TrEMBL record:
Catalyzes the sequential NAD-dependent oxidations of L-histidinol to L-histidinaldehyde and then to L-histidine. NAD(+) binds at residues 126, 188, 211. Its cofactor is Zn(2+). It catalyses: L-histidinol + 2 NAD(+) + H2O = L-histidine + 2 NADH + 3 H(+). Belongs to the histidinol dehydrogenase family. The keyword Zinc applies. Gene3D superfamilies: 1.20.5.1300, Nitrogenase molybdenum iron protein domain. This is Histidinol dehydrogenase. SUPFAM superfamilies: ALDH-like. One of its GO terms (molecular function) is histidinol dehydrogenase activity. Pathway: Amino-acid biosynthesis; L-histidine biosynthesis; L-histidine from 5-phospho-alpha-D-ribose 1-diphosphate: step 9/9.
Length: 428
């Protein structure tokens, strides 16, 4: 990891450091366009072809039904089952608390307005397979979808080499009451849910993280179909802000936890002490040797860096410019920093709050904006699966009170029919 001094960086250099483009996105865009177009025109045939090409699996059926899911789920080991149960309860409790109803407001006598929530009827959940299987993502997306009351939940995840799914995803499906898993991965899964195929239903909104291909596909279908997306959620990232009260071994473990996601993940250390940076780098060298995914983590660390700052406040300024998916405040003095956080997907406070707790079981959602999109996007929540519909009701008294205001404004805008809609009622 290269180290930079914040005070020596120009505004342009900071902006450059905050970029995450580690690959040629133009070539990825072209490939994704081809995949999406082929799925759009060829449907299931294209999905089977891509399963053979990318997953080395020959599929006769593109989904697993209820009985197969139950059979696979029954093989889950006891410890993993208990862990999923605990994570399920915590995630459900956190998201259930987000449900609320809004009061009706009488904006003036006789004029009443309010909002009501309605679930998005058909949603698509993408559960990555790739180099790591993520039952935690299934819980993070499936739980709020079920709580919201979505009528149809379409789940896509890449097939294993045996043409099935693993027992962890199957058990999650069982807990969520989802009776079908579509064995489709990558950009082709996004395209299938956006356009619909003979097997995969078309949905109204697609959720889920993924690699650059998945992210590009989500952004593409959002602009070319009537399908919404949760957010651009690409390669994972973490920024750790640390001072002299931090533990370098803890910091290193947090950086490596993100680095092992993929070679295009990024881990950033911002510290008030050169000693903390040096000791953290030493800890990374020690800890990475023991990781089964050390080659992946090492590549990600190569694409990462450290920034030396004069104060935690200066570190927060850099963090807000970077807008990290995950922000860890590795300091005992984190409370004064909380009001300074403007751009972050999810925040982890203090030396005993690792990001991996949020990834799995603390309760908060781990589907978060990456690549700087935390400047404008929130992570997935119950609200992500809901629409807010406004209502209004006007009585005779209300029409008398509001009528002249509407007539004057409509006249000023030159919209006579708008004015007439009020006038004709007032006259009668």
């Amino acid at each position: 990891m290269k180290t930079y001094s914040y005070k020596d960086l120009s505004k342009q250099e900071i902006e450059k450091l905050c970029l995450r483009q580690l690959e040629d996105d133009n070539s990825i865009q072209d490939r994704v366009k081809n995949i999406v177009e082929r799925v759009k025109t060829e449907g299931d045939a294209a999905l089977r072809n891509y399963a053979q090409q990318f997953d080395q699996v020959s599929l006769t059926q593109l989904y697993l039904g209820k009985e197969e899911i139950e059979s696979i789920a029954s093989t889950i080991p006891t410890a993993e089952k208990a862990a999923i149960d605990t994570a399920y309860q915590n995630i459900r409790a956190f998201h259930a608390a987000q449900a609320n109803s809004e009061a009706k407001i009488e904006t003036m006598p006789g004029v009443t307005c309010w909002r009501e929530s309605r679930a998005i009827e058909r949603v698509g959940l993408y559960i990555p397979g790739g180099t790591a299987v993520l039952p935690s993502t299934f819980l993070m997306l499936g739980i709020p979808a079920v709580l919201a009351g979505c009528k149809e939940i379409v789940v896509c995840s890449p097939p294993q080499k045996d043409g099935k799914t693993n027992c962890y995803l199957a058990y999650c499906a069982l807990k969520l009451g989802i009776e079908r898993i579509y064995l489709v991965g990558g950009a082709q899964a996004v395209a299938a849910m956006a356009y619909g195929t003979e097997s995969v239903p078309k949905v109204y909104k697609i959720f889920g993280p993924g690699n650059r291909y998945v992210t590009q596909a989500k952004q593409l279908i959002q602009s070319t179909t009537m399908t919404a997306i949760d957010m651009p959620a690409g390669p994972s990232e973490v920024l750790v802000l640390a001072d002299e009260t931090a533990n370098p071994a803890y910091i290193a473990s947090d950086l490596l936890a993100q680095a092992e996601h993929g070679t295009d993940s990024q881990t950033i250390l911002v510290a008030t002490s050169q000693t903390i940076i040096e000791n953290t780098l030493k800890q990374i060298e020690l800890q990475i040797r023991e990781l089964p995914r050390k080659d992946i983590a090492a590549k990600a660390i190569e694409n990462s860096y450290a920034v030396l700052v004069d104060s935690l406040e200066e570190g927060m300024a850099f963090s807000n410019a970077y807008a990290p998916e995950h922000l860890i405040l590795s300091t005992t003095g984190f409370e004064p920093l909380i009001p300074l956080i403007y751009n972050a997907g999810s925040v982890f406070l203090g030396n005993l709050t690792p990001e991996s707790a949020g990834d799995y079981a603390s309760g908060t959602n781990h589907t978060l904006p990456t690549s700087g999109f935390a400047k404008a996007y929130s992570g997935v929540s119950l609200d992500s699966f809901l629409k807010k519909i406004t209502f209004q009701h006007i009585t005779e008294q209300g029409l008398t009170n509001i009528g002249q205001t509407v007539e004057v404004l409509a006249q000023a805008e030159g919209l006579q029919a708008h004015k007439n809609a009020i006038t004709i009622r007032l006259k009668s």
